[in-house]
């Protein structure tokens, strides 16, 4: 007779094996519970206005902290990471995109893998109810990844893994299945290093492991729908969509290895484009270069406005 504990361990091993087969670089599991330590931090962050004009961050406060309000009867949060570090990057001197936006939109690519993972769980374990999340709902993904033992939150507030760095996406399955839970990651391996804080040109990274999102270049070039404030004119360092500065200077990213996801491969044209090409970007070229890309969020108008701001 298989005991309950043995069964939960067996189920967890099944999930992790399928996650590895689907290309996820890590998978950890935490008990679905209230994020008590995160509540005051989130409240303070919002009160300080660090979310800028991302009004949606003020919504669903309780759901952000309790996955059981997102999935009825939730027992487990399965956290996963997926590598996006590219083998080749843009040419020096070009207007820059964050590396995560080189290929197809990660929301769709990874969500399809999560649906497949959930389907595998149902096939091998039985009727399991749950939802898939990829940066698209009020889920505090870095807190859950830390609880599931995937890594620690760096000073730039991104999750870091010792053998991978930080160039990866996070995703979650919240399911109503009890599993064997991993130990949380409790050690901060950033130590006294402040390279990300020192390198941020807009001083968005604060010394208390918080980020002032209203100053972040990623926010200014993607989330902000108004004109970029003129105070940032000389601080953008040619980033037209997103920003990788804090990750590029992080010593842990010397361990980043190129991904092997064909859908994240950039269009050849994108890597070859120089500043003059970006300045003369047509809507037709935009559609060709960014077909199925996350950059389409900015639309042709938004991207060209960002480029004009950088000139």
Explain what this protein looks like in three dimensions:
It is a single chain. This protein has 311 residues and is α+β, with helices and mostly antiparallel strands. It folds into two domains: 162 residues, no CATH class; 105 residues, no CATH class. The strands form four sheets. The protein has a four-stranded antiparallel sheet, sandwiched between helices. β8 and β9 form a beta hairpin. α1 packs antiparallel against α4. The longest helix is centred in the middle third of the chain and has 19 residues. The N and C termini lie far apart (71 Å).
Summarize the structure.
With 311 residues, the chain is an alpha+beta fold.
Continuous helix count: 12
Inertia-based shape = globular
Strand order of the largest sheet: 1-2-7-4
Largest sheet: 4 strands, antiparallel
Q: Helicity range of the residues?
A: 25-40%
Number of strands: 10
> Any idea what the radius of gyration is?
20 Å
Helices and strands, in order, run as: HEHHEEHEHEEEHEEHEHHHHH
Terminal Cα separation, in Å?
Answer: 71 Å
Q: Which percent range describes the beta-strand content?
A: 5-15%
pLDDT < 50 runs, ≥5 residues: none
Q: How many separate domains?
A: 2
Output the structural class. alpha+beta
Average pLDDT, rounded to a whole number, is 96
Give the helix/strand layout:
Layout: H1 4-21, E1 26-31, H2 38-47, H3 61-65, E2 76-83, E3 96-97, H4 106-124, E4 130-133, H5 141-147, E5 152-153, E6 159-160, E7 168-175, H6 195-199, E8 205-206, E9 210-211, H7 217-223, E10 239-241, H8 245-248, H9 268-272, H10 275-279, H11 283-289, H12 299-310
Parallel strand pairs: 3-10
Antiparallel strand pairs: 1-2, 2-7, 4-7, 5-6, 8-9
Helix pairs in contact: 1-4
């Amino acid at each position: 007779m298989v005991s309950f504990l043995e069964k939960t361990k067996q189920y967890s091993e099944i999930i992790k094996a399928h996650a590895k087969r689907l290309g996820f670089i890590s998978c950890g599991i935490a008990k679905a519970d209230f994020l008590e330590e995160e509540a005051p931090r989130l409240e303070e962050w919002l009160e300080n206005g660090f979310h800028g004009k991302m009004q949606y961050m003020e919504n669903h406060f309780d759901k952000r902290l309790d996955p059981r309000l997102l999935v009825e009867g939730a027992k487990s949060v399965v956290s996963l990471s997926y590598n996006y570090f590219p083998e080749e990057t843009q040419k020096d001197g070009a207007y820059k995109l964050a590396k995560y936006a080189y290929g197809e939109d990660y929301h769709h690519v990874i969500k399809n893998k999560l649906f497949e993972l959930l389907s595998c769980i149902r096939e091998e374990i039985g009727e399991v109810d749950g939802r898939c999340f990829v940066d698209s709902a009020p889920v505090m993904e870095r807190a859950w990844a830390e609880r599931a033992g995937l890594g620690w939150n760096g000073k730039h507030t991104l999750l870091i893994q010792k053998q991978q760095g930080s160039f990866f996406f996070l995703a979650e399955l919240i399911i109503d299945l009890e599993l064997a839970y991993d130990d949380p990651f409790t050690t901060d391996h950033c130590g006294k290093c402040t390279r990300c804080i020192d390198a941020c040109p807009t001083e968005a990274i604060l010394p208390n492991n918080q980020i002032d999102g209203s100053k972040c270049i990623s926010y200014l070039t993607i989330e902000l729908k108004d004109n970029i404030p003129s105070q940032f004119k000389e601080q953008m360092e040619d980033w037209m969509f997103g920003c990788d500065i804090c990750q590029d200077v992080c010593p842990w990213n010397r361990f980043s290895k190129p991904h092997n996801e064909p859908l994240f491969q950039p269009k050849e044209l994108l890597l070859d484009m120089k500043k003059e090409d970006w300045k003369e970007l047509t809507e037709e070229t935009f559609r060709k270069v960014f077909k199925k890309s996350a950059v389409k969020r900015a639309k042709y108008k938004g991207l060209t406005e960002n480029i004009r701001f950088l000139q």
